[in-house]
Amino acid sequence: MAREKKINVVILGLLNHEDLTGYDIKKRIDEAIGFFWKGSFGNIYPALKELEEGKYIKSRTDSAGNREKIRYRITAKGKKLLEDWLKEEQISNELRYETLLKLFFAGASDRETALRNIEVFEGEIRRDLGILKVYCKSLESIKDDGDHIYYYLTVTFGVDTYEAYLKWCTKAKKILGK
Amino acid sequence: MAREKKINVVILGLLNHEDLTGYDIKKRIDEAIGFFWKGSFGNIYPALKELEEGKYIKSRTDSAGNREKIRYRITAKGKKLLEDWLKEEQISNELRYETLLKLFFAGASDRETALRNIEVFEGEIRRDLGILKVYCKSLESIKDDGDHIYYYLTVTFGVDTYEAYLKWCTKAKKILGK
DNA sequence: AAAAGATATATCAAAATGATACATAAAGAA
DNA sequence: TTCTTTATGTATCATTTTGATATATCTTTT
Fold first, then answer.
1. Rounded distance, CA A1 to CA B119, Å?
2. For a tag on chain A, would you pick the N or C end, based on fewer CB atoms within 10 A?
């Protein structure tokens, strides 16, 4: 089987929960999986067309008022593709941390710059961790219903790793002498 | 100032340490910063040409034997660009974890599949953590010389976060009933 | 001497990114 | 009421990155 483009399986995964428009899909990606995955209109809309051509999803145009709205639903063929991808053991996990890049090359500048970059990172992580903890708390009570358990686990991944980041920040600042 | 393409600053950062060929650059990226950054010939070679056109680097062709070898050196202008980038506070840090994606969508399949995906992830992380720890140990004794401190800090980031990943794996497997 | 693996440059199709354009609908302020 | 801002919605495009492949030489192993 050909290696499926990632945006395709992301779309299928989201449509497997509920019917959505392209715009909804973008929002779901940003809100629910935004801390570990991204999507843009630039690949969502073309992918939706492709997936419909391949009969993995089906569209329904909803013209309430003057506004055209295209809502998509996953087909049996689409569910099959999603399940096949889930069962593939090959995974690609990637970090792209500009903070680490800057730290690695920090010798080209001074310690103050290196420290400031760590502090900027720390600030962002602290803020995002706050948001993740709120999600985590609200999921704790419902995590045993249906598929919430999986959502809960991804959020705890975020919380645990972000806490590790913060600990590292403290250590790194100390080592750099602050 | 225009937002600089990331591969450009990666190349400048590496050339700031020593003169390198395109092939060397690819190797350095894979070895030294591979766990948090990637590069490919497909963007390294065109970027080298562009950077030379902009006078950020200078090439020296070394034709020992029949083999042509193009070695690059950073210029003062290139150093300036590198420093400017280091001082920009805007950073973009990204995770792209297929493992989390599969976990988030695991409801479309069964718990065994979800567990297997976590185990695959765990295996990879355990292997990579072993490598990182070796690097970490060898850097510990020289971390106070020159710029090694920054290399050491990036490696400890890897070690700390990978250890957090492993702890999360244990917890996640337990929650999923194993 | 042959085979295999590392070195080296280069290109290309496919995919992702980030920005923008355009238009309607809804909410809030003046 | 009217004006303005924000959210919804589809769509495209240039730039960048990815991943694979092509081609050739040099080095090490068998």
1. 23
2. N
Can you give the pLDDT at residue B63?
A: 77
Nearest CA in chain A to B11: A105
Domain B6-87 has CATH 3.40.50.150: no
Identify which of A35, A104, A152 has the shortest CB distance to residue B13: A104
Tokens of B60: 């020296």
Q: Are A113 and B86 in contact (CB under 8 A)?
A: yes
For B145: left if phi > 0, alpha if psi spans -120 to 50, otherwise beta; the answer is beta
Distance of residue B70 Cα from the nearest chain A Cα, in angstroms: 23
pTM of the predicted model, to two decimals? 0.93
Specify whether the CB–CB gap between B16 and B81 falls below 8 A.
Answer: no
Q: Which residues of B touch A175 (CB under 8 A)?
A: 149, 152-153
Q: List chain A domain ranges.
A: 6-87, 98-175
Q: How far is B76 from chain A (nearest CA, A)?
A: 12
Position A66 pLDDT exceeds 90: no
The answer to whether residue A1 scores a pLDDT higher than 60 is no
Contacts of B108 in chain A (CB under 8 A): 13, 16, 79, 82-83, 86
Beta carbons of A133 and A140 less than 8 angstroms apart: no
- For the stretch B88-142, pLDDT in tens is 998 899 999 999 999 999 999 999 999 999 999 999 999 999 999 999 999 999 8
- Whether B45 contacts B8, CB under 8 Å: no
CA distance B101 to A151: 10
- The answer to whether strand C lies under 7 Å from the CB of residue A41 is yes
Exposure pattern of B29-68 as b/e (b: 16+ CB <10 Å)? beebbebbbebeeebbeebbeebbeeebbbbeeeeeeeee
**Looking at A92-96, A143-147, B41-45, which range is the least confident one?**
A143-147
CA distance A149 to A28: 18
